[in-house]
Amino acid sequence: MINIFNFQVFKNRYHLTNFLILLCLALIASYVPFLGHFVNISHDGVYHLARFQQITEAFKAGEIPQVLNFKYVSPSSYSGVAINSFYPWITGLIFIIPNLIFHNPLWAIACGYVILNFITLLSIHQLLTYLKVNGLALYTGIIIYEFNNFHMLDLYSRMAIGEVIAYAFFPLVILGLLMIEHHNKYVYLFLGLSLGLIINTHILSFIIALILVVIYGLIIIFKRTDFKYKFIQLIKAGITSFILGFYVIYNIIFISMNNGFLSPPKYITPLNPDNTLQAILSNSLAEQQSAAWNLGAPVTILLLSLFILSLFKSATAWKRWIIASAILFFIIFSWLPYNLIATSPIGLIQFTARLLAIVVLLMAIGSSLFIQKGYLRWSSITIINIFIIAVSLTATYNFHYNYLYQNTGGHVKLSSSNYYQTLETTHTFTDYLPTKNKQSKIVALNGVDFNKATIVSKTTTIDSVSFKINSKSNQTITLPVALYKDLHYVIYTNGNKMSVSKSNIAAVKVKTGTNKIVVKSIGNYHLFALIISLFSLIGLLLYIFWSYIKNYNEIML
């Protein structure tokens, strides 16, 4: 039997030093947003924390999370909405597990952010070390990727948790593609793992990652070097990611085949040059100004400087990455007619600024390779890194204390004392509610008169909603509950089990006086799909980790 604690990887000071540096950077990136014992939270943040809280409470009750959400649902929506069917949660265990451990929810959120930032740092570290980058060049690339203003805005201003977890895995997509290009012994596994992790995180981010893979596919077709081998590896990676993401894919297909639902709106807001420049100069992390999201002054200046420099340098590795980054950066501004494709499927991207995640990833690679060439002094590199961190943390500090309440789109202070109340009472989104039919964009419950009887009280659990209703007559009423065809429910009226119609509306008969009605979701786990995804993900992670422990010098950590 192999004793992993005898391997030099655990004794190597280089690895230990890297680990401690990355951990310190993760703590630095996570500290400011929790000053004053509160979090400045957006509607997006409430939406994500609410779905994580329901999953946490399911685990605490010894239950498997169902695909429907009854508890901590926005007052704008209805109990029973299928958020868990459309919004992946497996990688959200980064936040869910700390919530199971800590009694104080704010401590759990802070712990989740430290873990997330550490994974982000480790991910870009893996990519850059694979490219033989080391020393200050390595940490400059890491700092650019972690501490740019766009990442801070996504992390803390938008609090778009799905997107920022996916952001942590984007470097692994590039790493996987490079491993295929270089015939690495792990070939398709890293690419399959990264795509699978992103599927289990955020579907739109997966589409962006898939576009990167398609671009690489076009490159190998054009180059025609080892095309057959590389194409087979891409197919293997695709199959691997499909197995890892089977739970998410199955849930989405199952609901979509049998129901119409309210999808997120389609539109495209490109970056506006004037607004972006103003936001850069004011060092703003205001999420409401999506046309002004930016990388921050030092990172933007560095990108433009390297791009100009690349025009006068001979072809080198760093030049290709910087030019690709700069081209994408210029494309996402408003001088292109994005209104022509706003209502197409491309409109699901909503903000072209989302592509800044790829811009800064390509830039981090190019910048670190440039510095590795020795073009800059040690002192200059140090000043650049300090400047990047200082500017992003200053922006985060100003946002944390000043971007609240009016003219912020609903930003409020979230503390341990108002945590549960905020999750229950904040109006967020109506996404994924069932519609009247597949072609309709009208919610099935729209236009229903809920005042035929008076709802005295409403109680929710992780898998049910209960109403106490006063009725002036014997009548049939429609409950404010979302139902989906081909999912399993049971309805009790005054203790009597009622039949459930195969529709998206819960119509029940009530008698004169007080009635107690319970709508309960029964066994809507899709357990077999969850087992396939979880076991394959755990198995692949263990295999890669074990292979690294045995051959740690073959993978540059």
TrEMBL record:
Asked if the Swiss-Prot or TrEMBL record annotates the protein with the keyword Transmembrane helix, the reply is: yes
Q: Which UniProt keywords apply?
A: Membrane, Transmembrane, Transmembrane helix
Which positions carry the signal peptide feature in this UniProt record?
Answer: none
For this protein, the parts annotated as crossing the membrane are 20-39, 78-97, 106-124, 130-148, 160-180, 186-219, 231-255, 291-309, 321-341, 347-371, 378-399, 525-546
What is the name of this protein? Answer: Membrane protein 6-pyruvoyl-tetrahydropterin synthase-related domain-containing protein
Species per Swiss-Prot/TrEMBL record:
Periweissella fabalis
Highest classification ranks of the organism: Bacteria, Bacillati, Bacillota, Bacilli, Lactobacillales
